[in-house]
Amino acid sequence: MTISPNARTIFRNYVMDGVPSSGNHKINKGDERNWGTALENAIDAYSTGAGSIAKATRALLFADLAHAADVMAWVYADTTAAYNGIYRKSLGTGTGSWTRILDLPHDVITATDAGAGTANAIVATSTLPVSESALILLNVFEANTGAATVAFNGGSALTIKTASGNDVVSGGLVAGMALLGRISGSTFRLVSDQASAAIQAAAEAAQVAAEAALAAIDLPPIAANTMLVDNELGTDREAKTFSEVRARLGDFDTEAAFEAATISVVLTDVVTRGYYAAGDGGGHRKVRIATPSPAKAWHKQSADGAWWEIADPEYDARYFGVSTARTAVENSALLQDAIDAASTNKRKLHIRGGPFNCAGGLYARTKLTMEWAPGSYLHQTEYSSTGAFFTNVSPVQAERAVSDIVLINPLIDLSSITYDVSDTTHSENGIGFARGAERITIWGGHIKGVRPNFNSAGGWGGKAIGLDGGVKCFTAISVRMEGTFYGAWVRGNEGAFSNGLDGLEQTQSNKFIGCHFEDVSLPIAIMGRDPNEDPDYRAQDISAQFIANTYHNGGFAPDVPASNSNRYKGGLINIGEAQNFLIDGFTGWNDDDYVSQKGGWPATGDVIGQGLSGAPCHIINGWGGAGTIRNIQAQGPVEDHWHCGRAFAMGDDAAPTGKVKVNYLLIDNIRHIGSAVNVFSQDDYSQVAASGDLRARMDNIYPYALSDGIVAANAESLVNMTMRVFQSSAKYIDGTPSFIYNTVGNAVAASDSSSWTEDSRVSKPQSYPIKTVADNATISFALSKLDGLIAFSCSASLAQGILKYRCSAGSTQASIYGPASIGNVAVTTGASPAGTASTLTFSFDDSGNMWVNNQRGASLNLTFNQLA
To answer: What are phi and psi of 792, to 5 degrees?
Structure first.
């Protein structure tokens, strides 16, 4: 008998029997159990007489129940093939039933194709019933012409499959051919194979078809460093270089390459690696947009006509083409594009990769945030048409209303503008806002080299930061202003501007906190209205606060040519009819040998501050009302602590215009180290305060040395003002100027001032230039109590060099090698060569400057020279 699947199939070695490359066969436990059960049934059947009962049909068997239980019988010729097989009797004689348990034990069944079917639909018969458990040997009556089927004994048509599982090919079944196969589900799977001649013919036909298809392909010739890609329409292949393939994918080296490209409509975003060249910092991502209306400068169009805009979450000015290779005029236009785009799209704008030359005249926009990277200065090289490098003063009135602006570390340098004494048209300021600007914040930064033009009819300019009538809620924090005429200039009075717009609103709630003024002629300037026009000092007229600011070398102005009729000395604090203001904390000093370092100014020596006799400046200069000035610590020679005189205010309001009138002014806690003429004086000119027009108080004034007295002779009649001036830690004078001058002895303070020593001097602000050492030069100088920067010009070799130092003339000189590259390198020594145990620190910052901190209390002699 036959058991299917048989033991050879179940326990074969390989997946495909006899084919080792097909892999090891894993035995199926279900097949193993079925095989064993069938074997047991067969043994059981034979042991109980199986085969002794044989019926032609199942019906005949089912009619014969006269047999004991477990008797086996065969059904061998039933027209229903499935009924043929081995049966087992259940229950006793005369009852029960027969159950089919096994196929008949035939290994090979012969079937005949007598031509009853067709070439591709064979009809075959067999004397024995066919089943999946037996092999079938079948002759072929006629050759097939395509895929074929076979039906056995009137059964369903079975698809003939080759041994490998494919349909037979045309001519694969040849007349007279003997096929050996087995039934598997709905297929007749051959064990033998189809005719090899037909297979060869099919292979040859396939070869011809393949060769024809190959000949039909028209590909570009092979070229070095190219690859084949679909064309734009997807209808052909073409050879493209790698960069061309990148462009096809939306990846471009430059902005020009992007603009020249025809970009596939399936791409919604593209990238550029740079603006002018890959890696220049101008690379960014763009996204496809609908046609903008109107199109702005920051909207870009590719050659196919599609529109794009920058998609990065923050902008870089280099995305818009700003470059060190561009002219100043070009950079200004591109910077304006960047500012407009950042404001419109509410993105932060970064200034990186500078310094950049600019022509100035940049207009501020609402909701703008800009941040400068270290060293990325904007250098203005020529005058702007606006009178300020960064401003809201636009010829278009609607554009002046700007708000919510944040400038982080702005780096602005106007020192490249050439001063022309014959120029009567231009003047320039650094950052200038006027009526219509509000909610503006500046964090940190450096504004330098803002010079005045004394001959300009429209105003002198020269302001590092200038706020004109109508600016509201402005805040500057930790801004460094250097080498400028004015430092922070705030005005609240009405005035007409060059574009015909009037400053009808008043400046309110503006603050300067923690700022530093370095080499600034007039560090703080607050200008208000004529008190004769506004005697009530209304709070809306001006509101300015200066909190915890510092200075070094200031108040030497107004540096006005002596030919100018307004020849007055300036002050550290300048109030020109100012009102409703607060100055709380202003600390710093002037060097004894200071000479203005602002190059490019008139070289005749006919400049006030360098040409006038006596001390160079006042601590406070001017008059006003409803204001407080307190906690001032100043060092260095001055003329007066408060000179109630003309505080020169350049611009549309050229100077205080009315009679001196001071109401409700408090000056409290001025500590001064250095020589002075008077504590208090007023003008000797026509603008002299009448006794009743000066209502103020000076409290807690600590002079160091007075050459004249507490009160100047021109103020001896004033009786409404009160003063408290300390002569020493235990003695003070309290009274009106008239009382002090005429009654208690005005000169006492000068003779008793020796109790004040330099031990009480204020702490000096840090980070100020001491010396400039040219590249490949050697220079020596001595410094005492130094805590600041020595600036280097090291364009070729950075900060590399040898620094030699000693702490006194007789001590041993030691050497320190500077860093080979810039980058915050610090060198700290221990005990000094002279034996003083203390700390001496040298460090180099990112701009090539050397920081020196000497706490030894001994003179420090420095020699610097470049390495060979």
So the answer is: -110, 150
Q: Are 388 and 434 in contact (CB under 8 A)?
A: no
Structure tokens at 619: 């601590």
Report residue 859 as tokens: 């003179």
Q: What is the DSSP string of 797-866?
A: TTT-EEEEEESSTTSPPEEEEPPSS-S-EEEEE-S-TTS--S-EEEEE-TTS-EEEEE-SSS-EEEEEEE
State which amino acid sits at residue 550.
Answer: T
Of the candidates 427, 823, 334, 414, the residue with the CA atom closest to the CA atom of residue 654: 427
Q: Which residue, 578, 460, 477, is CA-closest to 526?
A: 578
Look up residue 626 and give its amino acid.
A
Cα–Cα separations (whole angstroms), residue 753 to 263, 681, 699: 82, 19, 18
Residue type, 621: N
Q: Compute the distance between CA of residue 756 and CA of residue 718 in angstroms, rounded to an integer.
A: 28
Of 275, 267, 277, nearest to 337 by C-alpha is 275
Long-range pairs for 59-66: beta carbons < 8 A, 24 or more residues apart: 61/87, 61/98, 62/97, 62/98, 65/89, 65/93, 65/94, 65/95, 65/96, 65/97, 66/93, 66/94
Record the pTM: 0.64
Q: How far apart are CA 123 and CA 56, in angstroms?
A: 23
The two three-digit tokens of residue 697, written as one number: 């108080």
The enclosing H or E element of 67 equals: none
Which H helix or E strand runs over 246?
helix 242-248
Could you write out the DSSP letters of every residue in 659-709?
Answer: ---EEEEEEEEEEEESEEEEEEEE-SSS----GGGEEEEEEEEE-SEEEEE
Structure tokens at 616: 């160079």
Over residues 465-522, the pLDDT tens digits come to 999 877 889 999 999 999 888 999 998 755 444 443 444 566 678 999 999 999 888 8
Q: Are 412 and 447 in contact (CB under 8 A)?
A: yes
Look at 61-75, 418-432, 646-660, 745-759 and tell me which has the smallest mean pLDDT: 745-759
Please answer whether residues 272 and 250 qualify as being in contact, where contact means their C-beta atoms are separated by less than 8 angstroms.
Answer: no
Distance between CA atoms of 760 and 163, rounded to whole angstroms? Answer: 110
Paired residues of 465 in beta bridges:
431, 488
d(C-alpha 625, C-alpha 631), whole Å: 18
Among the listed residues 509, 575, 585, the one whose alpha carbon sits nearest the alpha carbon of residue 540:
509
Kindly give, in sequence order, each residue whose CB lies less than 8 Å from that of residue 697, ignoring residues fewer than 6 positions away.
665, 666, 667, 668, 721, 722, 723
Query: Which two tokens mark 406?
Result: 């944040």
The contacts of residue 754 (CB under 8 Å, 6+ apart) are none
Q: Specify the DSSP class assigned to residue 755.
A: G
In degrees, rounded to 5, the angle at the alpha carbon of residue 159 between the alpha carbons of residues 157 and 165 is 160
Token pair 């300020």 is found at 388
| Residues sharing a CB contact under 8 Å with residue 685, sequence separation 6 or more, in sequence order | 645, 646
* Residue 43 DSSP SS3: helix
Locus of tokens 């598997």:
184
| Tokens matching residue 543 | 């509101």
Percent of the chain with pLDDT over 70: 70
Please, are residues 572 and 520 in contact by the beta-carbon 8 Å criterion?
A: no
Q: What is the distance between the alpha carbons of residues 829 and 837, in angstroms, rounded to a whole number?
A: 10
Distance linking the first and last C-alpha atoms of the chain: 107
